Amino acid sequence: MAKARKHHYIPRSYLNRFATNDELVVLDFINKKRFIASPQNIGHIRDFYYVDGEDVGNENMVESYFSKVENSAKSVITDYVNTMRLPKGRDWTNLVEFVASMYVRVPRFRYEYVEIAEGFLNMRAQHVLANPDSREYKDLAKHGMPEELLKDVSELQVTPHQNQYVLAMLKPIPKLVEVINQMSPTLIYSCGSSRFITSDNPIVLFDPKRDPYHGSGWVKDSIEVYFPLSPRTCLLLRWHSKNSILSFHDKQVAMVNSLLISSTTQYIFAKKEVTWISDDHKIRNNDAELFLKFDESKGKRNFLECGNMRVVPKKVDLNRIKKSRYDRLIRQKADRERA
To answer: What share of the chain is helix, strand, coil (3-state, %, to 5)?
Structure first.
């Protein structure tokens, strides 16, 4: 049987909920265009979850794991959306694991991983340059002037091995499942004409009490986590609240959509028109205006900022997070076996 090479970072079963007759409205913020695509043909990267190892049978084990999680949650989400009754027992466990996996399996998570690595490299370079008596400085001096070798380190692009990407992605899932199980779920229902959209980064963390000194992660008391489940419904996770169902009017739905647009890497997916909130707090649905508003921030940016780890904004390019290509790894493996 041929191995799956087209790995969907946004599951087809999930995108199907936002499609009409197998067609999605897609807004591409990098290329600034709107087009129609099927869930089968969008939201995927070739060999995105490939694992490099000695056992060929394990090369697609991560893709297989995600497929299993998707299948387990598919009917649970359908029942939750249709009945508005909170899943219980094993159904809730399956939904939580799906939410956790959706948070880490997207391109944005890899961008953050790369920027952490690049940030530490930049900090290390600054430390070496500030300590000319250190062993690292003297080792670099054997190959030229350390100042010349390290002055442009902020422009370097780190290339993690594919397995490092996969490990960094999988390790947080059990802990994230534990965290989500302690939060209170709310199902938001759109009662107006506006519909929820989704994106290539469909889980958004919003902190109405943002604190620049302590961050705004999953475990902060004031955090709100939004995850659209369908054009009509959105899952909201919070701390210290009651499980409930909320009705959102058009402006509230557009505000959630704006959060999704702000956090997306490249693609927005919608059933029809995309509504959002403009700077003057009005509902907008004009694509050209939307592209213009986010033009600068989407094309060249950082995905992570943390104190001294800020790096120079870089062009958003998927090649930056998929340099460890399957074909090259296979050739390297063959070379090792022949040696």
So the answer is: 45, 15, 35
Q: Is 103 left (phi over 0), alpha (psi -120 to 50) or beta?
A: alpha
What the block records as the tokens of 88 is 């219980």
Q: If you compute the radius of gyration of the chain from its CA atoms, what whole number of angstroms results?
A: 22
Residue in 172, 175, 176, 129 with CA at minimum distance from that of residue 153? 129
Among 122, 184, 130, 142, smallest CA distance to 308 is for: 122
Which are the contacts of 248, defined by CB distance < 8 A and separation ≥ 6?
188, 189, 190, 191, 192, 234, 256
Task: Express each pLDDT in 304-330 by its tens digit.
Answer: 766 555 556 778 887 778 655 555 666
* Burial class of 61 by CB neighbour count within 10 A (0 to 12, 13 to 18, 19+): middle
Tokens of 184: 């209170």
CB-CB contact of 283 with 251 (8 Å)? yes
Spatial distance between the Cα atoms of 256 and 276, rounded to a whole number of angstroms: 8
Give the whole-angstrom CA distance, residue 205 versus residue 223: 7
Beta carbons of 266 and 29 less than 8 angstroms apart: yes
Amino acid occupying residue 15: L
Single out the residue of 97, 117, 232, 65 nearest to residue 175, CA to CA. 97
258-299 pLDDT, tens per residue? 999 999 999 999 998 999 999 889 999 999 999 988 887 788
Cα 73 to chain centroid, rounded: 19
- Digit-coded pLDDT (tens) for 132-165: 888 887 887 887 777 776 766 666 677 788 888 8
